[in-house]
Amino acid sequence: MEENSKRIVIVGGGLVGALCAYYFGKRGYRIDLYEYREDIRRSKSPRGRSINLSLSNRGRLALRDVGLEEEVLKSAVPMVGRRVHFQNGKVQSILYDEFTNQCIYSVGRNFLNKFLLTAIESLPNVLLHFDCKLIDVNLKTDELTFYRCSSQDYLRVTGDLIIGADGAFSCLRRSLQSTPLFDCSQTYIDHGYIELRISPEQSHLMKPNHLHIWPRGSMMLIALPNIDKSWTVTLFMPLSEFDRLVYKEMVLEFFKQVFPDVIPLIGTDQLVNDVIRTKPSVLVSIKCSKLHYRDKFLIVGDAAHAIVPFYGQGMNAGFEDCTVLNNLLDKYSEDFGRVLEEFTRLRKWFDKQMHRVVEDKWQPLYYSVTFTHTKYEVCLQQRDWQSKVLKRSLLLFGIVALSFSALTFINIT
Ligand code: FAD
């Protein structure tokens, strides 16, 4: 690894910030990563969102490029298909890919975050600073101010490049919004989610190596397997529906009507208590017109493009940011100005396509988004092409069938 005297400051040590630090660290830069939380490897009750995540090809490629994929997959559970639980009690498996047996992986968020932090700590040129909350960005002096809760003091730092990987409610992004032509929209959807758990003892009731789904119109329940044989269940539904589940009887009645087969999986008492006790989390999507400012500031991951979780693409797309950045650093010989310009151009386009992709429901599109690292834009072009081919084939088939019937009719008569 060649040493590089340039200093990179990364804000946020979540999944994307940690992987980004590893990429830049491997290139020899001096890295300082500042994270608001305490070190989750030492924390007894780590905070954060979903317990497990689906890792698909885009994310895997980003891990593979820096030699981390193999180790991550050892602690992940492969999911070969979706197991759909219909309202009428029928259950059906839909393989993700019956031709080449590709699958996605369920991986623990905390495991992955801890693993990445340990990986970056092994690089001599990377320093981790926990309990440092970014509270101010001075865009004139390029100075960041962090607040340290434990010592109740402030820290002022700067760098040659400052990367915000501080999540959907990014402080760095908020500052960049004051710069010219930096538009940004933040949209809450009216759905929230809570997490429940199926214990390893009940695991025999679940078909292994599948992502289980209970689709119910505006509500959806999914279950992803964990390495300890438990399952993490996520219930998505409009927040107004959660508001109605106040008493135990109401919860039980609701599940009896909508998800009756889930009751024995979680257990009545556990289910009712967990639903009543858990406050639903909200879901937000972020779109920005720019992702950088000058050759100095950049935002990545959820800070730049948070999306709703239904397609399981947020982390995968954030990891892909790291691959794209790395390729651009090669392409432009580490000229930050050109790298950042092009990154914004590429990812803005991605953002537009991704939101179109997320709104689409067609299965083969899911395939190309999940199992390939084809650009999202190309996935959509392929889908349009497939639709055209399908229409033409149907037309041709219709003409052939009509001609055949006509000939048969002529022969008979
Ligand atoms: P975050 O994970 O939010 O990390 C940001 C980090 O920055 C945190 O550590 C935070 O403490 C720190 N931070 C915040 N503010 C500051 C500050 N001021 N100063 C310093 N540090 C700060 N994606 C998938 O690909 N597959 C899935 O299956 C999937 N499932 C999901 C299920 C749910 C219910 C949800 C909500 C999301 C899901 N996602 C999934 C999306 C995925 O969780 C995110 O895209 C991913 O976590 C983004 O990573 P990030 O590092 O950009 O942001």
From TrEMBL:
InterPro entries: FAD-bd, FAD/NAD-bd_sf
Keywords, alphabetical: FAD, Flavoprotein, Membrane, Monooxygenase, NADP, Oxidoreductase, Pyridine nucleotide biosynthesis, Transmembrane, Transmembrane helix
Membrane-spanning parts: 6-24, 393-412
Cofactor(s) needed for function: FAD
GO CC terms: mitochondrial outer membrane
GO MF entries: FAD binding; kynurenine 3-monooxygenase activity
Protein name: Kynurenine 3-monooxygenase isoform X3
Phylogenetic placement of the source organism: Eukaryota, Metazoa, Ecdysozoa, Arthropoda, Hexapoda
Keyword Transmembrane helix in record: yes
Example GO biological process: kynurenine metabolic process
Pfam family, one: FAD_binding_3
Record has rRNA processing as a keyword: no
